[in-house]
């Protein structure tokens, strides 16, 4: 297992001091991270999802009606792979900036994130399958599994675990604090869903390809918020008592 990249940062005037799992404090801390380390948060997403959305928009523009579904499917596949790269890239960048206080080394963070891509994607695939199977039985088992394995991305990235070990580690971290984790992740996801729904409705009414690309980019950027919430939860649950 690789060295743990996360070390709780020294207290700073601007940093939320509380380490509780109260939903409001976790959401606030995630928003604070986005503002404080905006380069590590925004640049990976822009560099990965920007080209995907441009190609998506151009594909919709030139494709015939019968090919639209294919364009959407390929875009979803590319976005899934992109998300599995952006999350560790962002985690590494934010953590390195927290620890060192130095400017972001974007290339070094990318190199490490790229090496972790198979493990992150594999863990996400496993979680997706488990949550999907749980949801087929009843909604509640799916939600329980979603909560239990919600920390797999930062575990893989910052502790160097493989996919199966990451699931076990996430389960151990969440144990006994599932409701707090569930509330925080769900709240962030609901905020993003509402934002994405509103943006999508407005762009569909306008019917412009350029606005569709912009909407996709905005939605991708908004999707970083739950990812940051997961990072905050990991930090608070993994630090020594």
Shape verdict: globular
Mean pLDDT: 83
Share of helix, binned:
over 70%
Total E-strand runs? 0
Strand content: under 5%
Question: Could you write a compact summary of the structure shown?
Answer:
The chain contains 10 helices and no strands.
Structure description:
The chain has 241 residues and is an all-alpha fold. Helix content is 80%, strand content 0%. The protein has 10 helices and no strands. It has helices at 23-36, 38-62, 68-100, 106-137, 139-148, 152-159, 163-174, 178-206, 209-222, 224-238. The protein is globular. The model is unreliable at 1-14 (pLDDT under 50).
Strands, helices and their partners?
Blueprint: H1 23-36, H2 38-62, H3 68-100, H4 106-137, H5 139-148, H6 152-159, H7 163-174, H8 178-206, H9 209-222, H10 224-238
Helix pairs in contact: 1-2, 1-8, 1-10, 2-3, 2-9, 3-4, 3-6, 4-5, 4-6, 4-7, 5-8, 6-7, 8-9, 8-10
Key traits:
globular; 241 residues
């Amino acid at each position: 297992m690789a060295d743990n990249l996360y070390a709780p940062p020294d207290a700073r005037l601007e940093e939320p001091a509380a380490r509780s799992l109260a939903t409001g404090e976790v959401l606030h801390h995630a928003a604070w991270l986005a503002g404080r380390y905006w380069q590590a948060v925004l640049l990976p997403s822009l560099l990965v999802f920007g080209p995907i959305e441009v190609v998506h928009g151009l594909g919709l523009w030139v494709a015939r009606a019968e090919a639209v579904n294919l364009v959407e499917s390929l875009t979803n596949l590319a976005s899934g792979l992109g998300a599995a790269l952006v999350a560790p890239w962002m985690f590494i960048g934010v953590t390195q900036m927290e620890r060192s206080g130095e400017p972001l080394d974007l290339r070094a963070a990318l190199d490490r994130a790229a090496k972790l891509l198979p493990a992150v994607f594999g863990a996400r695939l496993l979680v997706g399958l488990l949550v999907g199977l749980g949801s087929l039985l009843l909604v509640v088992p799916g939600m329980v599994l979603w909560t239990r394995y919600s920390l797999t991305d930062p575990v893989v990235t910052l502790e160097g675990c493989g996919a199966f070990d990451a699931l076990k580690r996430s389960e151990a971290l969440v144990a006994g604090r599932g409701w707090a984790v569930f509330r925080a992740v769900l709240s962030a996801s609901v905020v993003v869903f509402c934002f994405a729904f509103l943006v999508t409705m407005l762009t569909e009414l306008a019917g412009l390809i350029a606005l569709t690309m912009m909407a996709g980019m905005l939605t991708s950027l908004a999707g970083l918020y739950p990812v940051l919430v997961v990072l905050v939860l990991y930090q608070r649950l993994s630090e020594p008592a």
